[in-house]
């Protein structure tokens, strides 16, 4: 490895590590061209290894390495991007420290006192919605719920740190306690030596239904440049004002399934994440074919 390359690697690492104050140093993915190089210094790898040594569950550890940077804005959407590494804490159940998130939980605590189901129990919320759908829409609507509830498709788990970071970006701009909305996330990854670098997008959504067009443009460019589209993420809000349904379930809708299928076929998308800010579904995009999409 040339001396110059070693210096570049060091400077990129510094950008990642101290990005809250220096985040302008990583202006563009092209600054990460070193990822394409055939060699990587051992000291870089050892730095990454030390980053993965973290105790799980400590809330204060759940932080992105870089400050998300605004890269697009229109009337209803903002799109942010940041880089991170495959640190264990990102996939632990430590939740980001955020007053906005705490307000969300306080709102749910309040709503939970009046609700006829424990909103913090995702299985119970899924069963409740399944029964409402069966009652008003027909028996066939139980099918996809049972796939998840029986463990035949997807994995239900508490929201993880990375999901909470992306969820928090949406909830800070458009508090879910005020109106339902769905923010989007896209996590791309690139293997280097024995660890992954993640390029993460978070799209905030002012309207209820997210528009994916702009985000897809960014992702398409990255995929063409060699990044792998690892995860598509979005949130499902609770809607306590509905006459029957309170929403807040992490089951994919028919449009979600169609999107996963299309992103899988077009961009090689691996995983779909849906979270309600408490619990999440992790769905391998190969599992999409197990679901009914005819309603
Ligand atoms: Zn959805």
Q: What is the alpha-carbon Rg in Å?
A: 20 Å
Domain count, please report it. Answer: 1
Looking across the biggest beta sheet, what order are the strands in? 1-2-5-4-6-7-8-3
Query: What is the N-to-C succession of helices and strands?
Result: HHHEEHHHEHEEHEHEE
Number of strands: 8
Rounded to the nearest angstrom, the distance between the terminal CA atoms is 57 Å
Helix count equals 9
Quick gist of this model?
The protein has 295 residues and is an alpha+beta fold.
Keywords:
295 residues, alpha+beta, 8-stranded mixed β-sheet, 9 helices, globular, binds zinc ion
Can you walk through the features of this model?
- The protein has helices at residues 3-17, 19-22, 42-51, 99-114, 122-137, 142-149, 161-173, 213-224, 254-267; strands spanning 69-73, 77-85, 155-158, 184-192, 195-205, 228-235, 271-275, 279-284.
- It is of the alpha+beta class and 295 residues long.
- The chain has one domain.
- Strands 1-2-5-4-6-7-8-3 form an eight-stranded mixed β-sheet, sandwiched between helices.
- Helix 9 (254-267) links the parallel strand 6 (228-235) and strand 7 (271-275).
- The radius of gyration is 20 Å and the shape is globular.
- The structure holds zinc ion.
- Residues 234, 236, 252-253, 256, 274 line the site of zinc ion.
């Amino acid at each position: 490895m040339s001396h110059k390359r070693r210096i570049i690697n060091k400077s990129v690492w510094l950008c990642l590590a101290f990005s809250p104050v220096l985040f302008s140093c990583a202006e563009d993915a092209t600054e990460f061209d070193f990822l394409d190089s055939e060699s990587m210094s051992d000291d870089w790898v050892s730095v990454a290894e030390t980053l993965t040594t973290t105790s799980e569950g400590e809330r204060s550890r759940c932080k992105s390495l870089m400050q998300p940077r605004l890269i697009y804005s229109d009337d209803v959407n903002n799109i942010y991007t940041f880089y991170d590494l495959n640190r264990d804490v990102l996939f632990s159940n430590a939740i980001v420290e955020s007053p906005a998130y705490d307000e969300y939980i306080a709102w749910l605590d309040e709503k939970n006192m009046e609700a006829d189901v424990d909103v913090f129990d995702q299985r119970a919320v899924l069963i409740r919605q399944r029964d409402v759908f069966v009652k008003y829409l027909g028996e066939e609507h139980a099918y996809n719920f049972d796939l998840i509830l029986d463990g035949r498709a997807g994995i239900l788990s508490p929201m993880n740190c990375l999901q909470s970071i992306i969820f928090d970006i949406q909830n800070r701009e458009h508090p879910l306690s005020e109106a339902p909305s769905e923010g989007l996330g896209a996590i791309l990854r690139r293997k280097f030596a024995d660890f992954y670098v993640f390029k993460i997008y978070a799209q905030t959504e002012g309207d209820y239904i997210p528009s994916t067009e702009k985000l897809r443009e960014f992702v398409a460019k990255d995929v063409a440049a060699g990044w792998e589209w690892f995860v598509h993420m979005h949130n499902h809000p609770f809607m306590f004002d509905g006459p029957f349904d309170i929403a807040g379930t992490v089951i994919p809708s028919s449009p979600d399934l169609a999107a996963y299928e299309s992103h899988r076929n077009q961009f090689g998308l691996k995983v779909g994440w849906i979270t309600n800010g408490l619990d999440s579904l992790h769905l391998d995009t190969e599992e999409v074919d197990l679901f009914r999409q005819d309603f």
